Amino acid sequence: MGEMTHLLSPGPPPVWFEQATRSPARGTSQPSQDDSRPLARPHLPPMELQSRPSVGTLSEQWDRLVDHQPHPSPFLKSWWIDNTASGELVVLCCFSGNLLVGGAAFEVDTHGKGLLRVPRVRFAGQGVLAPDHMDLIADPDFRPAVTKAVARWLWACRAMVDLDGLTPTCALPALLGLNIIERTPCPFMELEPGTDPIAGVPGRLRSTIKRSGKRLAKSGFTTRRVTSDVDGALMRLLELHEQRWEDETAFASGWTRFHDAVAAGHAVGDVVIHELANEEGFVIASELELNAGNTTAFYQAGRLTDRDYRGSGSVLKAEVIRWAQNTGITEFDLLRGDERYKDDWSTGERDIIRARGAATATKSWIASVAADVLKDRIEGIVSLLNKSLGEERTTKLVRGVKQSLR
Fold first, then answer.
1. pTM for the complete prediction?
2. Which of 77, 157, 158, 165 could be 132's S-S partner, Cβ–Cβ 3.0 to 4.6 Å?
3. 3-state secondary structure 241-305
4. How is the chain split into domains, by residue range?
5. Inter-axis angle of helices 203-218 and 312-326, to 10 degrees?
6. Domain 3-180 classified CATH 3.30.1890?
């Protein structure tokens, strides 16, 4: 990884690490009950941690693990990880023999300016693409060992750690002593087989869906699922999104990474796009969902705002939710945000968190690096002054500056 390889070279494990889950730093998140168990299981075969530049050929094993996590997240899938990082991608893979039993995916870049510029570790795709329900992945039997291995790597990599979109049960913040700086609600709708999922939404919304649905159907508009020409569907989605929101979102700035991830996810059936269109192919609304396990997540949508097409977004979303239920999905995840319209579609909510900070070793290392850089800069300035003013005058000048700072 070039320069980052040196910055992230592993160091010795911290002395306090073994007690971290039992004595979390005050004011930081607590580990889940599962992850507070002893981090050693003698009856399990030994586990090895490997660092890779992508999930790559491990995608099938990796995605199978994702689908069986307590809360499956599409943002942990290989097609998302391998396409959304804006920094250098680091995929940590934990093996027991030849079997992948867990891992985590991060991107590494630098943050800050000048003397304060430091290496930073975030989840793959973090930022404008806003992945949610982030965590490491692990086979249940190996979760304590995987958690310890990933936390040890993060502690030793000597970087600022900034993890957004975390599940509250993730043990990494407590292990690393990170501060919880933000909590954001994630609304969702439970889908029960044999029931009408739209029956529980507010009456005014049901009325909008019914009336607008009849009007749009009379005009020849029906719901279709995109099965080919994904590039065309994504361009239509972008155009509809930009028309609906104009400059209110940063979605377009991450478009290339989003496009590549969605195209890869669609190829394996994890990305679904529905459109409201007429027989001529004229699309007035589009919505994109991401699947993982028994959950589908509403990620992006767009629609025309003309009065003739009012209600099209609600009509399409109702059809998407019914489709999800009919395919065996048990949860429709509205992802992060407390937008008012989400209240109409949700039956509950859970929090995601943002944790940020640096382990003790990282803080001291950052201070050491800053001191070294500052020393080098001062020596460089003194050298220039020696050449222009001479050593004697420069010595007097430096002495005067030191006295004025006392």
1. 0.80
2. 165
3. HHHHHCCCCCHHHHHHHHHHHHHHHHHCCCEEEEEEECCCCCEEEEEEEEEECCEEEEEEEEECC
4. 3-180, 188-352
5. 100
6. no
